[in-house]
Amino acid sequence: MLKFLGKKGRTLVILILLGTLLGIILFLNKILFPFLLASFLAYVLAPVIDNLHQRKIRSHSISRGGAVLLVYFVILVVLIGGGSYVVPKVSAEMGSMIQEFPKAVTKISKKWGPVLDEKISSIASLFPEPDKVEPLPVIEKIEDKNQSTEIWTENGELLKILDSYTYEIKGLDSDRIEIVPHRKSGRESGIEEKPNVPLDMQTQLSLLAEEGVDKLKANMVRFLGLGRQLISQVVGSVFTLFLTFMVAAFILVDTERTLSFWRSLVPLQYHTRYSDLLKSLDKGLNGVVRGQLIICLVNGILTFIGLMIIGVPFAFTLGLVAMVFSLIPIFGTILSSIPIVIMGLTISLSTGLLGLLWILI
């Protein structure tokens, strides 16, 4: 097939076909997304359906359609029962966490800020102090009708004042110009706008906490203003979810017919390679997809149990966050450990460290 094109010609045709397929997927991504999600769901549930289909009840085997209905019924019961408990609990804990998180950061900064500042100062004292650089003298020249005098000022204050401005030169006419001073910002001018604020660790942590609270309030106000858009997205998501489960049910009921259809698209001489490819893909994805989902579930349950034993606040929500973030390799564990450590430190240092160790182990 396509042997007359040569090796380069076949490679070019394959690249063109792949590019066309990628363009179609990108153009029809919103339409294809439910079908791709349904294929993923069918792949995850296929072992369960096959196991139920092989079992017999009173010498009668369960049909694939009955197995699909039974699995969907269990999923529906879990979603309704779990949702009636999980959603209100998570909503209540999230509301409390949003209110308590800034207080927790402020409490940690006040409690551990002086300790960190003292440690940094003790470490800095081990190094020799840098030599003090004296400011250059400034020559201030005053001229009048009778005499010219030069006054030297050793403190360099005039130089600092002049350097805290930028100057715009405007031409009024051919003989006159106007110099307009513009004050620089605090960082550019080199003059501290708040010289009485100590730059210790506690102050820096408090400023970061205040800035984080302000940003959180601004984002919450913006989020509440998107209510109409949120409702439309929820309706669209429900429709997509319904379509996904319907398509997945058809795939699970007629799995053999679906696989036969895709096999018929492959030339006869490549059927053996096609079967080997499917087996290798199933072997690789079986450990990655199904194994990762099981790991996420177990990780969330163990995190919740451990945080309950240690005494970290909002253990249920933090365990749920850890379960979701377990889908992200390495970085998911790091991200989920940040709120756990912060909430643990509000109790004590040992609680925060135990929470971190429980997540890492």
TrEMBL record:
| Localisation | Cell membrane
GO CC annotation: what is one?
plasma membrane
* Lineage top rank: taxon: Bacteria
Biological source species: SAR324 cluster bacterium
Lineage runs: Bacteria, Deltaproteobacteria, SAR324 cluster
Under the heading Pfam families, the entry gives: AI-2E_transport
| GO biological process terms on file | transmembrane transport
Q: Which UniProt keywords apply?
A: Cell membrane, Membrane, Transmembrane, Transmembrane helix, Transport
Name of the molecule in the record: Transcriptional regulator
Enumerate the transmembrane spans. Answer: 12-29, 65-87, 230-253, 293-326, 338-360
Task: State the family it belongs to.
Answer: Belongs to the autoinducer-2 exporter (AI-2E) (TC 2.A.86) family.
The record gives the membrane topology as: Multi-pass membrane protein
